[in-house]
Amino acid sequence: MPAWVKAFDIALKDLKSAFRSASAWVFMFGLPLMIAGLFYLMLGSSASTGGFSLPVTKLAVVNLDRAAPRLRASARAVPGGVRADTLSELVVAILESDDLHELVRVVRVDDADAARQAVDDEQAAAALIIPPGFSRRFAEPYEQSELELYQDPTLSIGPAVVESILNQFMDGLGGIKIAIRLTLDHASQLDPRRIDRLIAEFMEGSPANEKDLSGALLDVRRPRASSAPLEQASPLLTIVSSIMGGMMIFYAFYTGAAGGESILLEEEKQTLKRLFTTPTPQAVILTGKFLAVFLTVLIQVSVLLTTSWLVFGIRWGDLQAVALAAFGMVCAAASFGVFINSIRRSTRQGGVVFGGVLTITGLLGVIRIFAIGSPHAVGLGESVSLLVPQGWAVRALLEAMEHAPLEQTALTTLGLLGWSAVFLAVGVWRFRKRYR
User: What is the pTM of this model?
Assistant: First the structure.
């Protein structure tokens, strides 16, 4: 009988043994689906229907910027046919543009106190106050321009949307001003009185050959065309999808460790020693054991991906990207299980492994998912999560879900396979040394 057939027979035997356990079914399939299901129920049916939408935020705007430097004619156009003659009017015009009409409704007010009072009276979610001299201070290379955003403390989403839009706009202005400041620092002979002209020319030329100034300062994106149905656009479904993906990865690594534990169980029952006395080479026996771990995790991930798609309506993304991410995840979980069991002396150390190592590395790996609400936390969470293989699995899966380029998902999967190669090499070496 060929060696690969013997190895497959050993793997099939372990596979049947693993799936005879009711607790294994609960652990591999029940818990991940139950946790995702709880979030699904808490978020409500709008997670599946895509009916969730952000409310339009009513924004009171006061422009106190008088006698402001005027923009050049070629830099005044704003989407929606609105024209802006000054920098402060440009801020207001972008908020009033067609691109943002589904998010923000601007109400112009003449007095700052009246705008604040409108927020206090819950007639507006926030008030934007453009102070006197805003455009003039921006025109001065070494002065700072500021906007005042007065918001209702009982609201979070609406004012946060407005703040995000303004931050992006002001960041764009800041980039322009930095460029001008560097020009002045390196060209002291430049007449400061020409700064207005320099600003206008810089803005007129950014982005290249475009007359739409807002394009340089505000990035308005629409969903890219894809085969995924419109339901995936629901923010609530996105949350459920991310949680389901995180739980799948979390428990896949537990399954890998539990599957690798079968080698230790057979060692303690003396069945492994008897198996080594048969004509089957030790390498073939260990290959069969490792293959069983891989197949167990593969079945678990395949079932969870399919079931969550059928039950929750989750669209995981392009099939090729999801297949790449799932393959990398399975390899990493299985090889990590082999590695972690190779350093265990007996099954009595299971509490340390399952309650300590796997829990800590698992939580670090999925931290990015539970930091989705904060951009700063997402960046920090991603950096921390990449210290463990679970984090790379999360990254690959999220890239597939977000329709990232296939090359990007393939590169992340390659990183996962790198982790797998290291874990498998160390695990095989230690087991062969142990049973020599």
Answer: 0.57
187 or 138, which is more confident: 138
- Would you state the structure tokens that stand for residue 318, as one six-digit string? 């392009």
CATH of 57-217, one of 3.40.1710, 3.30.2010, 3.30.590, 3.30.70: 3.40.1710
DSSP conformation class of 79:
T
| E-only strand ranges, 110-259 | 126-130, 148-151
Give the chain's radius of gyration (CA, Å). 29
Angle at the Cα of 297 (from 291 to 397), degrees rounded to 5?
Answer: 125
Bridge partner list, 121:
none
The DSSP element (H or E) to which 410 belongs, if any, is: helix 406-434
Chain centroid, CA 290 distance in Å: 32
Inform me whether the pLDDT recorded for 358 exceeds 60: yes
Beta-bridge partner residues of 126: 59, 151
Tell me where in the chain the CATH 3.40.1710 domain(s) lie: 57-217
Torsional sign, CA 422, 424, 425, 431:
positive
CB 220 within 8 A of CB 168: no
Q: How would you classify residue 241: left for phi > 0, otherwise alpha for psi between -120 and 50, otherwise beta?
A: alpha
Which H or E element spans position 397? helix 389-401
* 95 or 85, which is more confident: 95
Is residue 307 packed enough to be buried (19+ CB in 10 Å), middle (13-18) or exposed (0-12)?
A: middle
| Two tokens, residue 375 | 């951009």
Kindly state the percentage of the chain with pLDDT values over 70.
73
Q: Tell me if 262 sits within 8 A of 292, measured CB to CB.
A: yes
The one-letter amino acid code at 168 reads: Q
- Residue 424 has phi, psi (to 5 degrees) of -65, -40
Instruction: Output the furthest CA–CA distance in the chain (Å, rounded).
Output: 95
* pLDDT for 190: 54
* Residue carrying the six token digits 């007065």: 150
CA 218 to chain centre: 22
